[in-house]
Amino acid sequence: MDNARPIEIEPFSNRYGIHRLAVAMLPWAIRMGLHPNSITMAGLGFGLLAGLAYLNWADWRFATLGLVLMLGWHVMDGLDGKLARATGKSSDFGRLLDGVADYSTFVTVNLALAFSHDRPWLALGLAVASGLAHALQSQFYEGERATYIRRTAGQFEPVVRPAAGGFAERLYNRGEALLGNRARPLDAQLQAASSAERARLLAAWRPRAARTLKLMGPLSANGRTFAIWLAVMAGEPMLYWAWEIIMLTLLALAAARSLRQAERVPPACSAPANEGTLTSNA
Length: 282
Known about the structure:
The chain is mainly alpha-helical. The protein contains 11 helices and no strands.
């Protein structure tokens, strides 16, 4: 079962903007009897409209409209998950639909920027390369967040997704398992540990992992949304694609190294445990 994300790993824009709006809209969505999947589709509509706005990215007014519409998609993206949990309508299909809406929004915006560029073929090539990098980075980012969520909830095995479903669903699940949400040595340590030792392991791992996940904010959909707007406001969409291909790839690699280091928690000393044990391993 997927859980709501712990607040300590949420991007600033979620904590103080997007998710607050989603929470404010939740009672209304429940009263209206809306299905989470319909919220997801509404979010996709915002994303497609953002692509239309970004066709005129050279005009700052349309560029800013594109940003606002993408933020509307982010609010819907937060609301659908909250509504699903509140109404007990979470499903694997809904999770896949949510992922499709996310990628479709970015594909639409990237194509709009590429085909409206004065060097469309070069722009399209960079956009495609950027999109491939985006897909890998996002699967890694979301998988690592899923690992953090399940461990802090006391679950030390990856969430097993059903093998059923179409090709796209199986591919999506496989990518998540390979790039992030997978069993690692720390999970075996946690499963085999006593309650006291498990608490020690989690206390040593959790703050270090949380700090890294917060620093991975630019890999989030929110971070990419603002990066697109900043690039077009600077007058060159290619700045965004270069950022995604080079800088975000380097960030993902550095984050992967940091997260693996955080998981290397040494075994407890043979000496009696004391208050300094947690501090020395934190």
